[in-house]
Design a protein that fits this description.
Strand order of the largest sheet: 3-2-1-4-5
Largest sheet: 5 strands, mixed
Number of helices: 16
Helix content: 40-55%
Strand content: 5-15%
Shape: globular
């Protein structure tokens, strides 16, 4: 087998240290020589390791993506004069029965020397900063939602059924009523009269729902939950402001994305943070969709297709795309809404959502490559593409209902 990198190093990273195998295949020698050393995971040791690799004239460093332990090694070693490759552990599994840290490092060095591994996508530093911020915001938003759920359980314990009448427990009306309850107000009529706008039409139902047995103990716990909710909301606002600062170089890309139906500013922030604004890293739109896990999988053996399930993708990106797809499916007079209904009627809503996610990523790749805004094909796209098929489908539906149909052209259809 050909040697692609005569001087290659494999790193097996753990929390406390790293096993480093430097594999040298020098001219005139039949077999390669390997030397395994152990280094600590603190910054000074990683810098010393970098100097060691430079002294050995290593041209490629291969390491596994092990938890978050790879990050300090990658971020410091990427400043060296050699190439560094982060690989998926699934792609470099060692043989059963030979699993040790030393053998893993030697195996990585051997695979890298022969060019048998592919590097994972590691975004540049500006995108990494943006990714940290958007992921932290998503985590805090989920925690805030959990606090609201805990508040609802607490009110149920006190016999207050506010959430059964008000859709948003922490909306303007709901928050005013909860603050009054904490302040000591117990009259259901007074509390119900705090309703705003459309909720005022439900004042009789609110009066019944606010009749409970909320004690001082419950009021204290409600106050605690409200403070936690406010704290998380404040943190989300601070993170959003910081994201806006880091988004300055990528605002042009975000402005293009938000022209797609269903993609909001926050969803666009996540897509940019997870994929990067540089689509040249993905050879085609299909590569981007496959990397994101919105394409059918490939698992074939002996001519038999075993599974076409989608691959597991980035959970943050998949979550943002799911939100965008559901919003687009509920939109009116758009290509995505029609596409969703067509697929959902045949294959179910889950596959229809994945299809919309795939279509959105294809549109994003093309828009960022060309710098053009989204041009919606329209809700009549399929009827314009296949007018005869649309006509036959409509006739078949009418015949199935027991109608006899005679068509007469009006002269208006091309």
């Amino acid at each position: 087998m050909d040697i692609v990198h005569p001087r290659c190093a494999g790193l097996d990273v753990s929390k406390r240290d790293v096993k480093v195998c430097v594999r040298l295949h020098l001219r005139g020698r039949v077999k390669a020589t390997s030397t395994v050393t152990t280094w600590g995971s603190v910054t000074s040791q990683i810098l010393a390791l970098r100097d060691h690799l430079v002294a050995e004239q290593v041209t490629l460093v291969v390491m596994e993506a092990t938890g978050d332990f790879w990050k300090p090694f990658y971020y410091l070693l990427e400043e060296g004069p050699f190439d560094i490759m982060l690989v998926n552990p699934r792609h470099v599994k060692n043989l059963p029965g030979r699993k040790t840290d030393v053998s893993d490092a030697a195996w990585l060095a051997q695979l890298g020397a022969h060019g048998l591994v592919r590097g994972s996508f590691v975004p540049p530093e500006p995108i990494r900063k943006l990714r940290d911020l958007t992921r932290t915001r998503a985590t805090i938003v989920r925690e805030r939602a959990r606090e609201i759920q805990r508040l609802e359980k607490l009110l149920e314990d006190a016999g207050i059924k506010l959430s059964s009448v008000a859709t948003d427990l922490h909306g303007v009306s709901g928050r005013a009523m909860l603050d009054a309850l904490v302040a000591g107000e117990r009259d259901p009529a007074v509390l119900a009269n705090m309703a705003k706008q459309r909720l005022r039409s439900k004042i009789p139902e609110l009066t019944e729902a606010l009749t409970g047995r909320l004690s001082e103990h419950h009021a204290f716990l409600v106050r605690v939950q409200l403070d936690l909710i406010d704290q998380r909301a404040r943190i989300v606002d601070e993170l959003t402001a910081r994201i806006e600062e880091e988004m300055v170089p990528f605002r042009a890309a975000r402005d293009l994305m938000i022209t797609i139906p269903g993609i909001s500013t926050r969803v666009a922030d996540v897509i940019i943070a997870e994929t990067g604004a540089d689509m040249s890293r993905f050879p085609s739109a299909g590569h981007l969709a496959s990397w994101a896990g919105t394409c059918p999988g490939s698992n074939e053996s002996a001519g038999r297709v075993k599974s076409t399930h989608t691959r597991p993708g980035n959970p943050y990106l998949k979550g943002a795309l799911g939100i965008a797809a559901m919003a687009a499916a509920r939109s009116h007079d758009t290509y995505y809404s029609v596409k969703y209904r067509r697929i959902a009627s045949r294959r179910g809503p889950i596959k229809a959502v994945v299809a919309l996610e795939h279509a959105m990523l294809v549109a994003i790749w093309n828009m960022l490559q060309t710098g053009t805004t989204y041009n919606d094909p329209g809700d009549d796209f399929y009827s314009r593409r296949s007018p005869d098929k649309t006509k036959r489908r409509a006739l078949d539906q009418l015949r199935s209902l027991g109608y006899t149909v005679t068509l007469e052209p009006t002269g208006e259809v091309a």
